[in-house]
Amino acid sequence: xxxxxxxxxxxxxxxxxxxxxxxxxxxxxxxxxxxxxxxxxxxxxxxxxxxxxxxxxxxxxxxxxxxxxxxxxxxxxxxxxxxxxxxxxxxx
Length: 92
Prior knowledge:
The chain is of the alpha+beta class. It has helices at residues 7-12, 14-24, 43-80, and strands at residues 3-6, 28-32, 35-40. The mean pLDDT is 79.
């Protein structure tokens, strides 16, 4: 759970908030009118968040490529009327 603090108070206590994040392992949410505005997280937390974003994009791209390749192979089999298959292949 994150520690919430209004932006006006956060301005006055910025050094203390940074210490809480870096040394206390806390996450601080700065609010304005009771709504979350920004969050202070450690550099290690930020790296983990960035790492979570990158692989998702790569996985989607490789999944779409694999679907296209499989579909193209099936169309080629029908197009050329290939009846025999290598024992290790599995066309669909």
